[in-house]
Amino acid sequence: PQAPAKSGLFGRIFGGSGVVAEEPRRVLDDAMLESLEEVLIEADMGPATAVRVTANIAEGRFGKRLTTRELKSALADEVTRIMTPVAKPLPLYQQKPQVVLVVGVNGSGKTTTIGKLASQFKAGGKSVMIAAGDTFRAAAVEQLQVWGNRAGVPVLTAPEGSDPASLAFDALTRATAEGVDLLMIDTAGRLQNRADLMEELAKIIRVIRKVDATAPHNTLLVLDATTGQNAVTQVEIFRKIADVSGLVMTKLDGTAKGGVLVALADRFGLPIHAIGVGEQIDDLSPFDPEDFARALVG
Ligand code: GDP
What is the H or E stretch that residue 25 is in? Predict the structure, then answer.
């Protein structure tokens, strides 16, 4: 007999108290689909995606008697199908330096992600430089220096309160002169004053284009997966501010609510370049749709 479904989404439909001892079959009827939809919304998939996923699962199965396992695997397949097109590592170009602009709200894990990425690229034989572009947060600059040390990568800083665009310009000039492969530019994440932030990012982009008209080559948006549907709002906001080319989802360790990733993939189709799975330097993984779907479904 199958072990009771205790964890993941299905614990909430079938109960986690050991009642499901041996593969009951349930009719996939309206009530069942409704509970499924509710559970998906609770897991942060958002109403639109939850409705679509539920409808796809009902197709060809409605009115049939399914086991827990069959329903689980149908859901996992559906999630995998949605997520597969967005699972793409950060593309690496021949272009030197490749300029990666990193955006996101404070606390999303930007600093940590930059440190982890720097370490991975370095391990992959790339030379890396970091520009601490959040010049208004002394603590952020210090943290980035700590991560730079850990990764063994130089971090360029500027005095507190100085112009981030000017730092970005200097960093790209230097990275170009030194033949660095990859320059990552951190940016401020103060969404409280959106107009200022927009102007600041626009200026950084304008100024680095004086050095390299094709820069930035990637604009990474870092999102905290535990913020649920807020992540959707953040994508909408940052897409208006910058030409976001891909996402990194942090804090996927210890959250049962990764459903927002499905909503993001379904809605925006932006590549997920990596996921953060902890606070240590190696805790950054490629996004694997099947693993993700299995973990989400439980
Ligand atoms: P920033 O303000 O966007 O630069 O965010 P930080 O990089 O300083 O991260 C904010 C907090 O989130 C820190 O305590 C990090 O250790 C933590 N953090 C970042 N990424 C992850 C992750 O993938 N998993 C976990 N558990 N914590 C993370």
Answer: strand 25-27
- Judge whether 240 is annotated as a binding position: no
Q: Which of 105, 108, 110, 112 to mutate to test the pocket of ligand 1 (most atoms within 8 A of CB)?
A: 112
Spell out a b/e string for 96-113, using b for 16 or more CB atoms within 10 Å of the CB, else e.
bbbbbbbbbbeebbbbbb
Residue 33 buriedness (CB in 10 A; 0-12 / 13-18 / 19+) = middle
Q: State the ipTM, two decimals.
A: 0.99
| Closest Cα to atom 5 of ligand 1 | 109
Q: Is the pTM of this model over 0.90?
A: yes
Higher per-residue pLDDT: 1 or 166: 166
Using the predicted structure, report yes or no on whether residue 3 has a pLDDT greater than 50. Answer: no
Spell out which residues line ligand 1, taking CB within 6 angstroms.
Answer: 104, 106-112, 140, 143, 189, 250-251, 253, 276-279, 283
**pLDDT reading at 9 higher than 80:** no
AA letter at 257: K
- The Cβ of residue 26 has, within 10 Å, a number of other Cβ atoms equal to 16
- Nearest atom of ligand 1 to the alpha carbon of 106: 2
Q: How far is the CA of 143 from the centre of ligand 1 (A)?
A: 11
Tokens describing residue 276: 């953060």
128 is in an annotated binding site: no
pLDDT at 7: 53
Helix H or strand E segment including 164: helix 164-177
> Residue 201 C-alpha to ligand 1 middle, in angstroms?
22
Does position 285 have pLDDT exceeding 80, yes or no?
yes
17-21, 49-53, 187-191: range with lowest mean pLDDT: 17-21
Task: Identify which of 275, 279, 282 to mutate to test ligand 1's pocket (most ligand atoms within 8 A of the CB).
Answer: 279
Q: Tell me which residue has tokens 């030409």.
A: 243
What average pLDDT does range 35-46 have in this prediction?
92
> What token pair was written down for 33?
């689909």
Residue 125: how many other CB atoms lie within 10 Å:
7
